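hiii so um. not sure if this is the right channel but i have a protein structure encoded as C-alpha cells and i wanna go backwards to a sequence. like what aa goes where. can anyone help
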C-alpha cells in the first residue's frame, strides 16, 4: 500500500511538471496571437477528473503561476479557482522565459528531493539500511622473482613444514621436508583482492567486515598464487569486529581487527590482523600536540577442549595469548612537519615449547603431553628444539621410531620503540622512520637448560660440529627507512622512492608474525629494501620492490626478491 501511494505521488508530480511545461511553453505563442489556452486548462481539468491531480494541487499550481507572472508583468489575471471551475475560456497571460525556467527548476528539485528521501522515484531504489554501509577494497597483481645465491647451504630443514605435516620420524629413511635454497623461481604471478564493509550502527557503534584472498589461512599474507590448473581461488574472513566509541578520545574494539598499534613489518606483517580486544585513547593536549595509547588482549591459540583426544582426564589448559600496551605522542610542528613516536611492550604468554613427559611411542601412544606447545604457525629463524621425550624401545634400542615436533626455545617479551617524522624538502614530501626492538625474555643459557640441552637444539648453528660455541642467536632487531615523495600515491603522477635497512637476530621477534617478503619471511636476516611507486590516477598505481637479504648467523642463506606490481583501490 505504501509503495502504491509512493508511485501515485511520483506519477502525479511527473505529469504535473509536464502540464506546467506545456502551459508555460505555449504562453508566448498565445500572447502573440489571440489568447486561447483552453487546451491547457482542459488538460488540467482532465487530470483532476482522472484523480492524477487534486483540485487543490491544480488551484495552487495556477495560483503560483499567476502570482509569479504578475510580478514579472503586472497584468490582471482571473482567480485560479474560477479558471478551473469555469466552463468558458480561461486566459493565462504571458509569463517571461526566466520565470518559466525558475518554476520548472523549483518543481524538479522538490520532486527529486522527495524521491531521494523516500526512495520511491528510483527504479533501482535500495533499502534505507544500506545507506549506513560504506564499501571499500583493493586489488593487486604481482609478478615475483626469487633468486638464491649458489653458495647457500643445502640441505636446510623446513621446520615449519615438519610441524605442519608431522610428526617426523628422526629414524626414518625418508628425508625431512627441506627448504629450497638454491633454485631460482621467476615469474610467479600472484594476486590479492580484499573487500571491506564499514557499517554504522548508531552514533557510537560501528562494525567492520572484510574478506580477502590467500593461499591458505596463514596470518601474514592474503596473497594468492595463480595457476594450480586454473582452479578457483579461496576467500577467507579477514576482518570482523565491533567498535564502540562513547567519546571522541576513546574507542574499544572487539573481534578480528586491523593491527591497532603503531608498528612496522619488522614486528608484524602488513597484512596481519589481530584477534581479540583493544582499547584506544587519543587525548588532544593542545592544537598541535596529542597523546595516544593502546592496550589489548589477543588470543593466539586455545588448547583444544578434548586434548588429548585418547586420554582421560584431559591436560590442563595451555592457552597462548598476546597482551600488549603502547603509549605515544603526535606533534604537528608546522603545516608541513609532523612527528609521531611510541613505546610499546608486547608480552607473548606460553609460546615457549615444553619438553614432554616420557612418551612411550613404541607402546602405541599417538601423542605426547606437550605436542600442543608447538607453534600454530612458523616461518623460519627462531631457535627450535625437539619437544618429545621419547622412551627407547627396549626391543630395538638403536632403531626405534622417534616421531618429533619442534617448539620455540625462548619466551618473547618485546620492548619496542618506533618513530616517524614527516616533512617537506623543496616542496617534496619526505618521511623518516626508525624502529628498535629487543626480546627482554631472551637469555642464551635457556637453550642449554635441563629441559632442552644441546642434543635437542635443531637450528641456528654455525658450520662445523654442533657445540655450545657454534650455537648463535640474539634478541635485537632494528629498522631504518626513508621515503621521498608521497608515501601512498593518491593522484596521477604521485611518486615515491623508498630505501630501508633491516637487521633482525634470530630471537628478536616471533618469526611467524613478521614480514613474509623480506628474506621470504621470518627472522635471522639482514639487508636492504629498495622500492618505488608511481600513480596512474586517483585509484591506481604501479610499484617495484627489491629485497636483498642474507642470514645474520649460521649457514649462508642469501635470498633476493623482486616484486613488480599494479595496485588499485576503490
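sure thing!! here u go:
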Amino acid at each position: 500500500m505504501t509503495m502504491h501511494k509512493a508511485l501515485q505521488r511520483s506519477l502525479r508530480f511527473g505529469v504535473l511538471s509536464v502540464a506546467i511545461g506545456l502551459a508555460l511553453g505555449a504562453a508566448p505563442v498565445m500572447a502573440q496571437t489571440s489568447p486561447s489556452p483552453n487546451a491547457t486548462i482542459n488538460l488540467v481539468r482532465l487530470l483532476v477528473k482522472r484523480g492524477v491531480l487534486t483540485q487543490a494541487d491544480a488551484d495552487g499550481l495556477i495560483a503560483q503561476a499567476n502570482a509569479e507572472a504578475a510580478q514579472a508583468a503586472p497584468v490582471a489575471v482571473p482567480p485560479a479557482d474560477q479558471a478551473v471551475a469555469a466552463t468558458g475560456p480561461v486566459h493565462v497571460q504571458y509569463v517571461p522565459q526566466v520565470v518559466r525556467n525558475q518554476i520548472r527548476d523549483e518543481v524538479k528539485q522538490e520532486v527529486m528531493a522527495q524521491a531521494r528521501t523516500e526512495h520511491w522515484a528510483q527504479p533501482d531504489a535500495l533499502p534505507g539500511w544500506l545507506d549506513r554501509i560504506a564499501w571499500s577494497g583493493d586489488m593487486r597483481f604481482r609478478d615475483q622473482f626469487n633468486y638464491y645465491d649458489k653458495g647457500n647451504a643445502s640441505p636446510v630443514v623446513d621446520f615449519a613444514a615438519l610441524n605442519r605435516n608431522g610428526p617426523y620420524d628422526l629414524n626414518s629413511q625418508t628425508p625431512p621436508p627441506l627448504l629450497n635454497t638454491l633454485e631460482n623461481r621467476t615469474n610467479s604471478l600472484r594476486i590479492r583482492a580484499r573487500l571491506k564493509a564499514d557499517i554504522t550502527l548508531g552514533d557510537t557503534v560501528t562494525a567492520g567486515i572484510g574478506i580477502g584472498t590467500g593461499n591458505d589461512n596463514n596470518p601474514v599474507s592474503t596473497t594468492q598464487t595463480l595457476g594450480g590448473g586454473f582452479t578457483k581461488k579461496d576467500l577467507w574472513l579477514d576482518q570482523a569486529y565491533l567498535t564502540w566509541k562513547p567519546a571522541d578520545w576513546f574507542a574499544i574494539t572487539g573481534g578480528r581487527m586491523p593491527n591497532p598499534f603503531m608498528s612496522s613489518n619488522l614486528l608484524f606483517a602488513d597484512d596481519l590482523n589481530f584477534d581479540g580486544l583493544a582499547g584506544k585513547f587519543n587525548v588532544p593536549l593542545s592544537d598541535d600536540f596529542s597523546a595516544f595509547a593502546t592496550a589489548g588482549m589477543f588470543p593466539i591459540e586455545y588448547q583444544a577442549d578434548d586434548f588429548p583426544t585418547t586420554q582421560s582426564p584431559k591436560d590442563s589448559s595451555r592457552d597462548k595469548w598476546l597482551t600488549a600496551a603502547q603509549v605515544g605522542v603526535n606533534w604537528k610542528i608546522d603545516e608541513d612537519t609532523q612527528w609521531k613516536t611510541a613505546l610499546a611492550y608486547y608480552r607473548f604468554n606460553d609460546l615457549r615449547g615444553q619438553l614432554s613427559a616420557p612418551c612411550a611411542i613404541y607402546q602405541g601412544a599417538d601423542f605426547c603431553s606437550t605436542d600442543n606447545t608447538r607453534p600454530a604457525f612458523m616461518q623460519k629463524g627462531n631457535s627450535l628444539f625437539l619437544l618429545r621425550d621419547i622412551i627407547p624401545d627396549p626391543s630395538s634400542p638403536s632403531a626405534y621410531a622417534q616421531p618429533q615436533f619442534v617448539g620455540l626455545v625462548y619466551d618473547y617479551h618485546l620492548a619496542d620503540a618506533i618513530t616517524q617524522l614527516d616533512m617537506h624538502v623543496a616542496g617534496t614530501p619526505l618521511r623518516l622512520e626508525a624502529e628498535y626492538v629487543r626480546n627482554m625474555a631472551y637469555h642464551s643459557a635457556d637453550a642449554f637448560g635441563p629441559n632442552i640441552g644441546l642434543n635437542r637444539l635443531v637450528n641456528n648453528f654455525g658450520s662445523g660440529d654442533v657445540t655450545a660455541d657454534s650455537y648463535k642467536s640474539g634478541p635485537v632487531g632494528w629498522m631504518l627507512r626513508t621515503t621521498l615523495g608521497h608515501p601512498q600515491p593518491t593522484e596521477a603522477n604521485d611518486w615515491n622512492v623508498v630505501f630501508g635497512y633491516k637487521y633482525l637476530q634470530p630471537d628478536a621477534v616471533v618469526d611467524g608474525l613478521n614480514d613474509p617478503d623480506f628474506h621470504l619471511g621470518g627472522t635471522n636476516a639482514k639487508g636492504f629494501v629498495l622500492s618505488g611507486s608511481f600513480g596512474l590516477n586517483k585509484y591506481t598505481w604501479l610499484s617495484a620492490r627489491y629485497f636483498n637479504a642474507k642470514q645474520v648467523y649460521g649457514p649462508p642463506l642469501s635470498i633476493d626478491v623482486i616484486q613488480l606490481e599494479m595496485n588499485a583501490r576503490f
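oh and Residues 2-32 form the longest helix (31 residues).
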